[in-house]
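G.,

No rush on this.
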Amino acid sequence: MALITRKKLIYPVNEVLRDYLRQQERESTALAYKDLTRYRSTIPLYDHSGKDTLWETVLYDQSEVEHIHKDLKMVYSNLKSAGQVEVIEHLFIDRIDICPFGNTKPFRIRIVNSINDNFDYFYIKIADASRIYGLELEHLLSPNRINYIVDGNTLVEEHIIGVPGDQFILNNLEDKNLNKVRLAKEFVKFNERTFFRLLGDMHSSNFVIDITPDFEEVHYRIRAIDFDQQSFEGRKAVYMPKYFKQNNAFIQLGMEVMTPESMKQYQLEERSLMVNRIKSSRYTLNELLTAMKSTPLSIEKNIRQLAKELARHHGDDAFLTCSSMGEIVERNLQKLETM
């Protein structure tokens, strides 16, 4: 079973990473995270069944509301349409929530179209370098595109759509129309993606399942939504979703519908796709890894432990010379290319 051993540290955005973000046009004006912390009070937020969501709706003094809502709509415009104000003409801020139990206490903003009542969410968080590296690695090395912007010490992220993994287990896993083989295959591929780019803590509450109906079948895509544990922990198992007890239902499903041979085939298939993504973004990925190697991104004990465990896993003592998590990620991806 994979365990997170301690609360992850928050690493600031250094100049090397900030230069990378400028090059990739990830920098844009945003309402500062600290401006949203000036709320007067909060009230618990419950879901449709009356269950506590662990989010709280924040309330501001009336004198602050108009200014905050106007700035949040501009942030949404910068996130979604490079600042085109026409996009936000019919939008209004319906609710601002905070997750007080999150590592960085993120804010979630619900924004609604007044014409058709369609709504969207986006998030404002403290700019943790680890999370930014996680977002960028997801953008480059997974089949998913990630949209986010950074302004100073503030990070703005779009909402990733899908059914939360823990809710999927409760409400969807027994659906008679569930394509068990495709879901099990996707979990194997997801495990490969998180391991080789070293994204940790992928238990069922930290990923969603995007369900796409096709003309004959249903497709599933498992998407990470929490990138805080990018390359921090020292235990190899933390980077493999199959070792989290919260994911046992997916493991049991795989054992039911897959053979060891088919599982190996799916692993090789995803590794091949990742290699193609590496090749297609070689220059950008090298720039990102250069920035990533400019700061340790973890404590020395974790770096040494993970280097040792991966050296044993791959049979490659070159991991033992790594002095930062960025170097370990780089070496792990190099192993992927030689398999």
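When you get to it, here's the other one too:
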Amino acid sequence: MNKIITIAFIAIAALMAASSMLFVVDQRQVGVVYALGEIKEVIAEPGLKFKLPPPFQNVVFLDKRVQTLDSPDTRPIFTAEKKSLIIDWLVKWRITEPRQFIRNNGVDYRNLENRLSPVVQAAFNEEVTKRDVQGVLSKERDKVMNDVRTRLAEDAKSFGIEIVDVRIKRVDFVADITESVYRRMESERKRVANELRSQGAAEGEKIRADADRQREVIIAEAYRDAQKIKGEGDAKASGLYAEAFGKDPQFAQFYRSLEAYRGSFRGKSDVMVVDPSSDFFRAMRGSGNK
């Protein structure tokens, strides 16, 4: 029984010793082996690895994937025209020299971020002060990011890292001038709107004047055509009358007399004082009463 217990104890001790000497390096990590406080070995290849048991050796792991550093504050930066801008940025970085990284920052990434942020901010200050607002906002935005990345490339080596990318997330004016900028933009938009309305009103007047002119031309042409047609009709009617009256002159004289009577006695209250024996009433007297 005691032998069995002894064997079990030895087996457990052997497993504990083996577990303290074996470790696994993930493909996303770098293993750093320490020997009595000094870096003994850096292991970048993933797999099962061996080391001496503590306290002779121990191991720490560093993430070798791309990390992100965001701008920690919103301090204003002055442009070449002395305008204050707030620039929100981010930096993508990864560890390339684990030994250098640990010597300068330890194994806590926050130490690196606290030291790298002022360096990035200073690089942005240098680049933004060379340009005006329009350049930072649009025209030279990409160049600003590329120039900042170039500036950081050399400094990054001392941290044991590589700068993968630099991006500007947002550019804005400081709070005390943002309102005035909005008011200026509003005034500009109102000016453009008023100008467009004036142009529209002028164009409307032009269209109405042209429509009135065309209307007058159309009415004049229609009146001319109507008068022409009327004249042609009157001429044709006169011709028909002349032809008809030429066939029977006596009827023509009688018809003209009736037309004269119709024109003279148009109203019921009309009164005429005329000699009944005058030629005006010849048609009424008949052929027997001359």
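The radius of gyration is 55 Å. The longest strand covers residues 161-173.

Enjoy the weekend,
O.
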